[in-house]
Amino acid sequence: MIRQGEQQPIPAEIKTIFSNKVTSITFDKGLNEGGSDFNSSGLHVSIQRIQPPLFNVEVSPQTPVGIYTVPFTTSIMVQTMATSTKPIFDSTVSGFVDPEFKLSKRYPTVGYITNPGNLTNTVIPPPNIYDEFKGFWSTYGQGISILMGGFAGGVASLVFGRIRRT
């Protein structure tokens, strides 16, 4: 979720069962087709880094509230180890087994998986005065309560002390 008029980095996790080594990310739609930036309806998304993926999302104050889907294509490097076992050859006449046919050979393979993905952003209105106060109180409210409680206790002891003297 991002508010109108805000800008924030959004980390992403793109992985398959084989790998999470992202090698490239390109946006599918927007003003810069197939590039590293996406622009649409006041929503601007750019790629800060590829590995691990980090998107920078910037929303203008005039962007309508709603859910925005940013399509992109990503390539992920897949590295596997293929094992090839040759069939064992037994000569039925002599009983000779060729040692070449007993060996297992390992072949490293590298490939790339290229698939589409979506970065979904929900644009919400800017904070109102209630949201500002709620955020302030959640940060500083406990400290203020403790200080005010101590102050009230001190004032109460002075008031009760004056009442006793009279």
Structure report:
By secondary structure, this protein is of the alpha+beta class. It has two domains: 2-79 and 109-126, Immunoglobulin-like; 127-166. It is built from one helix and eight strands; from the N terminus they run ββββββββα. It has a four-stranded mixed β-sheet, with no helix packed on it. Strands 2-6-5-4 form a four-stranded antiparallel β-sheet, with no helix packed on it. A hairpin with a 4-residue loop joins strand 5 and strand 6. The two termini are 62 Å apart.
Outline of this structure?
With 166 residues, the protein is an alpha+beta fold.
What layout of secondary structure does this protein have?
Blueprint: E1 2-3, E2 7-11, E3 21-27, E4 37-40, E5 43-49, E6 54-59, E7 66-85, E8 104-124, H1 129-165
Parallel strand pairs: 1-8
Antiparallel strand pairs: 2-6, 3-7, 4-5, 5-6, 7-8
The major β-sheet equals: 4 strands, mixed
H/E series, N to C? EEEEEEEEH
> Based on CA inertia axes, which overall geometry fits?
elongated
Determine the mean pLDDT. 80
Stretches with pLDDT under 50, minimum 5 residues: none
* Structural category: alpha+beta
